[in-house]
Amino acid sequence: MSRWKLALIVVVLLVAGLVGWRIFHSGAAPAGAGRRGAGANADAPVPVTVVAAVNRDVPVYLTALGTVQALNTVTVNAQVGGQLMALHFAEGQEVKQGDLLAEIDPRTYQAALDQAVAKKKQDAAQLSASQSTLARYEELIKKNFVSAQDLENQRQTVRQQQALIAADDAAIASARTQLGYTRITAPISGIAGIRQVDVGNIVQANAGSGIVVLTQVHPINVMFTLPEQNLEGVRSAQAAAAAGLEVAALDRTDAHVIATGALKVIDNQIDTTTGTFKLKSEFANADAALWPGQFVNVRVKLRTVAGGLVVPATAVQRGPEGNYVYALQADGTVAMKPVTTAGDAGDDAVLVASGIAAGDKVVTEGQFRLKPGSKVQALAPGEAPAPPSAQELSKLKDSGAPQQRRGGRRGGG
C-alpha cells in the first residue's frame, strides 16, 4: 500500500471519530437536562376549577321528543252539489265557529223548497174541504140523511189528508235544510289552510278533497312517548297532581321554553314493538307559538326533591366502574370518589344520590391531567392561574433548560 493511501485512511478514521464524539456529547447533555426539567415540572400543582356541592330543591324531569297536533282538524266539505259561487275566507285567516266560508248556487234548492211549500198549500186546501164535508155529515147523521158508512169514509179521508200535510211539513224541512247547505259555515274556530277549490267549479257533496281544512290551535296538543319503565312513575305523579303534571315545550336546541302546559292523557296501552307509551299534553297557546306538525323537545316535571345534593354536570366523569368525581382534599391533592347520580338538575347540573356530601369541592375543569393523589391548584370558575414567579422561573433555569439551548447551539455549530 502506498504512503499517501495510508495517510488518507488515517485522516478518514480521525474525522469519523471526531464526528461521533461530537454527536454523542451534543445528544447526551440535552437528554439529561430534559429529565431534570421534567422532574421539576412534575412537582408543580395542576391548575383545576373546583366547585362545592350544594343542597337545593331539585325538580325531577323526564324528557322526550314531541309532535305538535291541532286540538281539532276539520276538512270542510260541501253537503250538496252545485257551482261554487263565492269564498268568504282568506288562506291563513283565523275564523270563528259559524262564520260563512263559501256559497253554492242556491237556485235549484230554492225551487225545491218553493215546490214543497206549494204542495203543502194544495194538500191543506183539500184537507179543509174534507173537514167541512165531515162536519156536515156529522150533522146529517143525526137526522139519518147519511149512512154511518159514509160518515166513517169521510173521517178516513180527513185522516189521510192530515197525514199528507205532515209529509209536506217534512218535505219543506228537508228542502229548507238542503237550501241551508248552500251556505257553508265554519264548524269550529280555527285557522283556514290553503283552499282546495276555486270559485266557479262544480263541487260534489262530501268530496274527498273538500274546500278547505280548518285547524284549531287555541288550545293545542303535544303528543310524545316515554319508555315503559317510566309508566308507573308518571301515573303516580299524575294521580297526585290536581291540575295535571307540568309539561314544557322547548325548541329543538333546548335553548328556551316555547310554552308550558299540562299532561292530559296517558294512553291505555304500551306499544309492544317499541316498548313505549303515548301521552297527550295540552297548551293554551294564546300566542300561537306552537304550530301543528312542529317538532319540540318535551320536559315533564314529575316531582321536586327537597334539599337534593347538586354538582355541575361537568364534574361527573364516566369510568369502567361507573360514575366518579375528583374531590379536593385538605392537603391540596385530589381523590377519585365513585358517585351515584339520580337524574338531571337543570341544564348544567346533576343530582347526586351518594358518594359525596354537601360542601365537598369537586373538580369541574382540568380532569384530563389528573390521577388520584395529584397535587392541584384550586381555582374558582372563570379564574385563571397566576403567571410563574421569578423564583419559579429561576428553578426552571436551574433544572437544565438553558443547557438544552446551549447544547443545541453546539450541535448546530
UniProtKB/TrEMBL annotation:
All residue ranges annotated as the Multidrug resistance protein MdtA-like beta-barrel domain in the record: 219-302
Main localization of the protein described in the UniProt heading: membrane
Recorded GO CC terms: efflux pump complex; plasma membrane
Signal sequence extent: none
Subcellular location: Cell inner membrane
Domain Multidrug resistance protein MdtA-like barrel-sandwich hybrid: 72-214
Keywords carried by this UniProt record: Cell inner membrane, Cell membrane, Membrane, Transport
Molecular-function annotations in GO: efflux transmembrane transporter activity
The keyword Transport appears for this protein: yes
Annotated ranges, domain Multidrug resistance protein MdtA-like alpha-helical hairpin: 113-182
Residue ranges of the region described as Disordered: 377-413
The Multidrug resistance protein MdtA-like C-terminal permuted SH3 domain, residue ranges: 309-366
Coiled-coil residues: none
SUPFAM superfamilies (alphabetical): HlyD-like secretion proteins
Keyword Cell inner membrane on entry: yes
Family membership noted in the UniProt record: Belongs to the membrane fusion protein (MFP) (TC 8.A.1) family.
Protein name: Multidrug efflux system membrane fusion protein
Species name: Dokdonella fugitiva
